Amino acid sequence: MSDAIVAPASLLLATDLSARGDRAFERAVQLARQWRARLVVATVLPSTQELDFHDPIFGAPPWQRPALLSQVVEKRLRREFAVDDVELQVQVESGAVGPALLRVAHAHGCGLIVTGIARNALFTQPNLGSSVTWLSRHTTLPLLVVHRRAQGPYRSMAWASDLSDTAARALQLALALFGTPVSLGALHAFHVARLGQRDAHAAAALAQARQRAQAALGRAIDALALPTDVRGRLEATVAEGEPSRLLRDYVRDHDIELAVLGGHGRSALSGLLLGDVAGRILHSVQTDTLFVRDRGDAG
């Protein structure tokens, strides 16, 4: 790609203060140390209208009023996410989770959003999982959704390609930011409309479609101009089926630590990856996942 990729100077950790959020925090800290970047930790509280303290007569006790609640949350964030060797900034917002997180990310010049998917039982804010799905559809910033505990740099990656320029950018971004993994797989899903399994032409049509898909994926990989050592360890796979299911199974069967997705709204496959199926991917692919949208296609 023409633009050199540099590690971001700031990254955003979006947290709902749940216990599982520790996994996203561990990964964010590892990346902040690796890049010598500032870590912005943000959480979003419900708006004043959404707060419900269940006592219409006496109202809320003083420590549950929005202003003091925000102070309580900020203190907790600073206490739980303090790291001696990482510059830390804490931000507490209110309102709709996704838009609030984007405001924080852009205000602090963050080049990556890191988050997990869990539910905040303490403040009963909306499920962060739904907000992550919203972010995957609306942000042009790279979005890293963390499932696994951080055990150093990623050792294996699976690139789900729809053959678009944005998909190529997603892989190049992943390699530039996270380094070259020990194993690297490229997965491309294709679909063939068939009359039925007993149709005499079905097997031939499937074989031809597979050959075309393999050739197209090969051209896409060649266009990346990967270093020789990276290209040599890349294993290309094409398969017929629904993309999110194939990615789920590939990640599980190959014990992949990071799945890489890129796409835009003008491609049928990317519409699956970053459209309504994004939610299924977030909940079915049980590994860290990097979402990269077309920089001009946030909706």
Secondary-structure topology with pairs:
Layout: E1 10-14, H1 21-35, E2 38-45, H2 66-80, E3 88-94, H3 97-107, E4 113-115, H4 128-138, E5 143-145, E6 156-160, H5 165-178, E7 183-190, H6 202-223, H7 228-233, E8 234-240, H8 243-254, E9 258-263, H9 268-274, H10 277-284, E10 288-293
Parallel strand pairs: 1-2, 1-4, 2-3, 4-5, 6-7, 6-9, 7-8, 9-10
Antiparallel strand pairs: 5-10
Task: Describe this entry's structure for a reader.
It is a single chain. With 299 residues, the protein is an alpha/beta fold. The chain folds into two domains: 10-145, Rossmann fold (3-Layer(aba) Sandwich), CATH 3.40.50; 156-293, 3-Layer(aba) Sandwich (Rossmann fold). 40% of the residues lie in helices and 19% in strands. The chain has ten helices and ten strands. The protein has helices at residues 21-35, 66-80, 97-107, 128-138, 165-178, 202-223, 228-233, 243-254, 268-274, 277-284, and strands at 10-14, 38-45, 88-94, 113-115, 143-145, 156-160, 183-190, 234-240, 258-263, 288-293. Strands 3-2-1-4-5-10-9-6-7-8 form a ten-stranded mixed beta sheet, with helices on both faces. α2 (66-80) links the parallel β2 (38-45) and β3. α3 (97-107) crosses α4 and α4 (128-138) crosses α10. It is elongated. The model is unreliable at 48-54, 119-128 and 265-274 (pLDDT under 50).
Cα(first) to Cα(last) distance is 24 Å
Order of SSEs: EHEHEHEHEEHEHHEHEHHE
User: Based on the structure, what is the oligomeric state of the protein chains?
Assistant: single chain
Strand content: 15-25%
CATH class value of the largest domain: Alpha Beta
How does CATH name the architecture of the largest domain? 3-Layer(aba) Sandwich
